[in-house]
Amino acid sequence: MIAATGLRWVLTLLFVVPALSAVWRTGAPGRAGGGPGAVERVAHLLHAVMATAMAAMVWPWGMTLPAGPQGALFTLGAVWFAGVALARPAPASRTHALRGALPHVVMMGAMAWMAAAMVSSGSMAGHGGSHDMADMPGMDMSGGSGTVTMTLTDTGPRLTAGLLAGVLLVLALRWLARSFDAARLADATGPRRPAAPVERDAFGLACHSAMALGMAVTFGLLV
Model's pTM, two decimal places? Predict the structure, then answer.
């Protein structure tokens, strides 16, 4: 999808580093060692899959991957993040958890939307569920410049992609600011354990910011 070699590598780095971090956190020692529990491991695994999918998407071979299974997986991921927050027993903690889960629901939902748009385009072409992401109606596969090889052509999808790009950029900046705050706190109080919750870990927050920034750029290039 990305034709410019330099931008392709920059986006790949923005996605691969969060993917590796999420994989590492998925396998970190359990709660007895201060690490994640089962719920946190699933969250990290979903982030690893999402980052890997985005890294693949910026390369030509990534556009041949089936869109349908990706859409189903990321839809389930969005539902899972929301469901975990709603499962909190106390209303106050449930509201707090929902606020914390919302950015992850948005990111998973954005991935599901992109896959659904591609599935819809493929269905109009008569390919059914066995199509890949390449050569679809509703998308200009030549791109509008030397930067990308694919852009959306219909007004509705373009507006949606632009809106998602803006929201993802806001999330990226918010996570980046929180990362700086966490780093300053670590300087004042001493470093946290390597397996500290990502919401209070400067590097983990920076990885979320990088992932959201890469997605914002990618969605923006579709417009």
Answer: 0.82
Instruction: Return d(Cα 104, Cα 107) in angstroms, integer.
Output: 5
Whose CA is closest to 186, among 172, 207, 205, 171?
205
Instruction: Mark out the alpha helices in 27-125 (DSSP H runs).
Output: 38-57, 67-86, 91-124
The band of 152, judged by pLDDT with boundaries at 50, 70 and 90, is confident
Domains in the chain, number:
1
Calpha distance 151→145 (Å, rounded): 10
Residue 35 pLDDT grade (very low, low, confident, very high; cuts 50, 70, 90): low
Q: What is the spatial distance between Cα 223 and Cα 220, in angstroms, rounded to a whole number?
A: 6
Are the C-beta atoms of 77 and 108 separated by less than 8 Å?
yes
Q: What's the residue count for the chain?
A: 223
Joined tokens for residue 46? 């979903």
Separation CA 34–CA 30 (nearest Å):
7
Domain hosting 198: range is: 5-222
Q: How far apart are CA 172 and CA 101, in angstroms?
A: 15
DSSP, collapsed to helix, strand or coil, labels residue 125 as coil
Q: At what angle do helices 91-124 and 38-57 cross, to 10 degrees?
A: 30
* 147 vs 133, residue with greater confidence: 147
| Tokens (6 digits) for 124 | 């109009």
Higher per-residue pLDDT: 199 or 161: 161
DSSP code, position 192: P
State the Cα–Cα distance between residues 21 and 188, nearest whole angstrom.
24
**Contact assessment for residue 63 and residue 8, using Cβ atoms and an 8 Å cutoff:** no
